[in-house]
Amino acid sequence: MKFIHRLGYYLGGFAIGLVILAFFLNGKDASCDYTPNARTTKFLSKLPKTYSESSEQFLIDKEIDSSTLNNLIRFGDVDFKNSNTKGEPCKTYYIDSKLKEEFIRLHIENCDEKVKILIMESILD
Predict the structure, then answer these.
(1) Measured distance CA(43)–CA(36) in Å, rounded
(2) How many Cα neighbours within 13 Å face the side chain of 105?
(3) Counting Cβ atoms within 10 Å, is residue 92 exposed (0-12), middle (13-18) or buried (19+)?
(4) What pLDDT, on the 0 to 100 scale, is given for residue 17?
């Protein structure tokens, strides 16, 4: 069999497999969060949140609602170098995110399936 025929069969089977895969995964909450940053931010964004007084004031001053805060966490970058991921009883994370043209750093504490936003501050680029 010529190479071009084998390539055609391969690409045809690959295309059929993609269509079947798209059919089965359509409408499901399937995601590919394999990196430590993606897993951490996805986990933290789904948990219920409480706020310290300073972070509440920051949210009021910057007019940030809860869905925007979830997006800041979900699409932010975790600074694992400064975070304490093995802390007992609570793990702490520093997340750098961008809101419009402003960079924001969040200091988050994760205790017993609850997230507490300790500090939110604007940082320079």
Answers:
(1) 11
(2) 13
(3) middle
(4) 93
Residue-wise pLDDT for 13-66, tens only, equals: 999 999 988 888 776 666 777 888 888 898 888 889 898 998 888 888 888 888
Three-class secondary structure assignment of the chain? CCHHHHHHHHHHHHHHHHHHHHHHHCCCCCCCCCCHHHHHHHHHHHCCEEECHHHHHHHHHHCCCHHHHHHHHHCCEECCCCCECCCCCCEEEEEEEEECCEEEEEEEEEECCEEEEEEEEEECC
